[in-house]
Automatic annotation (TrEMBL), chain A:
Job of this protein: Membrane-anchoring subunit of succinate dehydrogenase (SDH).
Binding site for heme: 96
Gene Ontology biological process: tricarboxylic acid cycle
Gene: sdhC
Protein name: Succinate dehydrogenase cytochrome b556 subunit
CDD domains to which the protein is assigned, alphabetical: SQR_TypeC_SdhC
Automatic annotation (TrEMBL), chain B:
The species this protein was found in: Acidisoma cellulosilyticum
Protein name per its UniProtKB record: Succinate dehydrogenase hydrophobic membrane anchor subunit
Record keyword Membrane present: yes
Functional description taken from the UniProt entry: Membrane-anchoring subunit of succinate dehydrogenase (SDH).
InterPro entries, A to Z: SQR/QFR_C/D, Succ_DH_anchor, SuccDH_FuR_B_TM-su
Organism lineage string: Bacteria, Pseudomonadati, Pseudomonadota, Alphaproteobacteria, Acetobacterales
The keyword tRNA processing is annotated on this UniProt entry: no
The protein's annotated pathway: Carbohydrate metabolism; tricarboxylic acid cycle
Pfam family, one: Sdh_cyt
Subunit structure: Part of an enzyme complex containing four subunits: a flavoprotein, an iron-sulfur protein, plus two membrane-anchoring proteins, SdhC and SdhD.
Length: 144, 133
């Protein structure tokens, strides 16, 4: 059944005939831009962090279950797979953290100009890398 | 548009509903606002949690128990759990609304996702309470 929202996706060709415009998100149609790339990475990191919450729950449940289950959980985090996952999640966390702040700034009406939004995108990427490195330096220093 | 009858549009709202302005904005704003409030709360909570956990990397379970046994830590942990799981639920809901087009499937996946998020969140809160009390 046609939806009322379809009215918004009807456009005209140069010869005047009507055409149904593609609905967003159509990643294969739009040219990649800083705005769309930072937006989709925000979503991907958000999904990754949702999965990462399972590890946080495991860590808490294991701690509440006793020293043995806690050692098992800790052993997984310290294993090669665990460390790779943790590294990915640290990156995802800081990206989502800083880009989330960027979104909040947009929400209060700041930073919409293309130049500013490109600058803040670069700040987000730089801050993500810096915070990830800091976390791993601290984490490894405490752990080893 | 009027002279072209090839494309027809069906209104899903009743005329009364249109006049009263009933639509997604009634509950949509609630979802949007919930995301904003939880993200603001998660800024300090995340910083606190990440650096607290990092300072205990590799420590035995007894150290974690001692840490959570402080009421302030337990309260902040529960606040972090509630805010992050609520934020997760709202975010995943938006992703599903965007990408799952078939209504029945969307409903089922949404319920599965919310059930998992709720159960994980409850397990996390219960663990904190068990460690704290």
């Amino acid at each position: 059944m046609p939806d009322v929202r379809d009215a918004l996706s009807i456009g005209k060709r140069s010869d005047g005939s009507l055409v149904r415009r593609p609905l967003s998100p159509h990643l294969q149609i739009y040219k990649p831009q800083v705005s769309s790339a930072t937006s989709i990475i925000n979503r991907v990191t958000g999904i990754a962090l949702s999965v990462g919450l399972i590890l946080m729950v495991w860590w808490l449940v294991a701690a509440a279950s006793g020293p043995k289950s806690f050692a098992t959980a800790q052993g997984f985090v310290g294993s090669p797979i665990g460390l790779i996952l943790m590294f990915g999640w640290t990156l995802a966390l800081w990206y989502h953290f800083f880009n989330g702040i960027r979104h909040l700034l947009w929400d209060i009406g700041w930073g919409f100009e293309i130049k500013t939004s490109h600058q803040t995108a670069m700040i987000v990427v730089a801050a993500t890398v810096v915070m990830t490195v800091i976390c791993w330096i601290i984490g490894l220093a405490v752990w080893l | 548009m009027a002279q072209n009858d090839k494309i027809s549009v069906t209104m899903r709202q009743t005329p009364l509903g249109r006049v009263k302005g009933l639509g997604s904005a009634k509950s949509g704003v609630h979802h949007w606002w919930g995301e904003r409030v939880t993200s603001v709360a998660l800024i300090p909570l995340t910083l606190w949690f990440v650096f607290s956990v990092l300072s205990m990397a590799g420590h035995p379970q007894a150290d974690i128990v001692h840490w959570v046994s402080h009421p302030l830590v337990a309260v902040l942990l529960i606040a972090l759990i509630v805010a992050s799981f609520h934020h997760t639920q709202l975010g995943l809901q938006m992703v599903m609304e965007d990408y799952i087009h078939e209504e029945g499937q969307r409903l089922i996946w949404m319920m599965v996702m919310k059930a998992i998020v709720w159960l994980l969140g409850l397990a996390a809160v219960l663990s904190v309470l068990k460690l704290a009390i």
